[in-house]
């Protein structure tokens, strides 16, 4: 039997909503990478905006996105097993096309995740037959690599940077960084160094390829459980995940912030804590972050079970259905905003400004995705991805021009 892409009205809307939520976080955190994370921005408003991003969205967003990648693979396996269809060849083509998209994207933005997802996706093929318990143990082991490696490296304490020094660095970057001064060709030439993505790079970071694969395994295990294919039948379990996830996750983020304030612990900024405090902070972050992400997902899924919640969250479902298109167009928009060949705002916008831009860009995408979803079965890039994966041009326009968001 021939396999094919999932029809729009067969999708799990709650998953698309969670994906849409994650995409806003991915956008916001990406915008901070162009200078807004600097301590040079020390006004009260900037500190509040940075703390919001750091506590509630940083790492949680990509973790949700990675979990959903593994979850989608589990659903694809189940669907094709039901049809007695061999998934391997189709899945390999799917990953190859995704890698090609990622290669092109990385030339514009060196923070691309698509290449890494494609590379690690082959790992899911290798472990897909392992028992769920083994997959979860493997995931925990991979999550421990970051704190263990950082402890083993025993880095010297970083010098404390003053606000004046940080402002000087921003000014220097405005004059010398390729994103600020380079042409499109020069930016692409500079970014070519990140191709292909190295899954084993920066294993002492909580955002390394090994941590991403751990989230793939967690998402795959959730998908295999079948809980989200029968949400009403698993409401009690999902409520438990929501309550414990939000409770423990927010407590972990609060504890990590206390360590930062009292012991000099830092993960993405200069580190002052001793080895013991560093290890405690790293463990809290390594495990507290995915727990909080799971809490977010469960809360969103439960909210979508009510008529009012479903109506309020429906715009996010449209974004989640067009995730690849949204992710790539986010880069087009923020690179035009920041890069020197565009509006040249790189290293010139602080936390308040980039947060405002994230809201503006994402709001425009929500409107565009809703308009598109009422008329077409897939997003433009999703359509191309599926057509190249299945080697058949997929029908794009909806026959009756109705939005499928309420048909699930």
Describe the structure.
- With 408 residues, this protein is an all-alpha fold.
- It has one domain.
- The protein is 68% helix and 0% strand.
- It contains 16 helices and no strands.
- The protein has helices at 13-32, 44-57, 60-82, 88-106, 114-127, 132-153, 163-176, 178-181, 184-191, 209-225, 235-263, 275-303, 307-321, 323-338, 351-373, 380-390.
- It is globular.
- It starts with 12 loop residues before the first helix and ends in an 18-residue tail after the last helix.
- Residues 401-408 have low confidence and may be disordered.
List the helices and strands and how they pair.
Elements: H1 13-32, H2 44-57, H3 60-82, H4 88-106, H5 114-127, H6 132-153, H7 163-176, H8 178-181, H9 184-191, H10 209-225, H11 235-263, H12 275-303, H13 307-321, H14 323-338, H15 351-373, H16 380-390
Helix pairs in contact: 1-3, 1-12, 1-13, 1-14, 1-15, 3-10, 3-12, 4-5, 4-16, 5-10, 6-10, 6-12, 11-12, 13-15, 14-15
């Amino acid at each position: 039997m021939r396999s094919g892409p999932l029809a729009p009205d067969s999708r799990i809307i709650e998953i698309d909503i969670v994906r849409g939520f994650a995409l806003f976080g991915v956008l916001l955190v990406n915008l901070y990478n162009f200078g807004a994370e600097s301590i040079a921005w020390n006004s009260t408003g900037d500190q509040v905006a940075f703390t919001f991003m750091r506590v509630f969205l940083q790492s949680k967003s990509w973790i949700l996105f990675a979990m959903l990648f593994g979850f989608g693979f589990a659903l694809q396996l189940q669907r094709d097993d039901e049809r007695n269809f061999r998934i391997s060849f189709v899945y390999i083509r799917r990953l190859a096309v995704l890698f090609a998209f990622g290669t092109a994207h990385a030339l514009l933005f060196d923070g691309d995740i698509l290449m890494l997802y494609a590379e690690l996706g082959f790992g899911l093929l290798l472990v897909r037959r392992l028992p769920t318990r083994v997959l979860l143990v493997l995931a925990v082991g991979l999550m421990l690599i970051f704190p263990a490696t950082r402890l083993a490296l025993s880095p010297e304490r970083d010098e404390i940077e003053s606000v004046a020094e940080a402002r000087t660095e921003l000014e220097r970057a405005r004059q010398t960084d390729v994103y600020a001064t380079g042409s499109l060709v020069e930016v692409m030439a500079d970014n070519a160094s990140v191709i292909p993505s190295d899954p084993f790079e920066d294993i002492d970071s909580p955002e390394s390829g090994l941590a991403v694969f751990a989230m793939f395994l967690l998402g795959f295990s959730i998908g295999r459980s079948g809980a989200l294919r029968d949400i009403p039948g698993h409401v009690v379990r999902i409520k438990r995940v929501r309550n414990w996830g939000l409770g423990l996750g927010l407590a972990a983020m609060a504890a990590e912030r206390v360590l930062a304030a009292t012991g000099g612990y830092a993960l993405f900024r200069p580190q002052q804590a001793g080895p013991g405090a560093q290890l405690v902070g790293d463990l809290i972050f390594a495990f507290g972050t995915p727990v909080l992400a799971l809490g977010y997902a469960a809360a969103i899924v439960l909210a979508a079970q009510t008529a009012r919640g479903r109506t309020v969250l429906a715009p996010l479902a449209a974004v989640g259905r067009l995730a690849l298109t949204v992710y790539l167009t986010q880069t087009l928009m923020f690179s035009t905003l920041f890069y020197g060949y565009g509006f040249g705002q790189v290293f010139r916008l602080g936390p308040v400004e980039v947060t405002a831009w994230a809201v503006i860009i994402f709001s425009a995408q929500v409107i565009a995705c809703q308009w598109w979803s009422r008329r077409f079965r897939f997003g433009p890039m999703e359509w191309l991805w599926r057509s190249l994966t299945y080697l058949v041009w997929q029908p794009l326009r909806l026959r009756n021009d109705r939005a499928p968001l309420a048909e699930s």
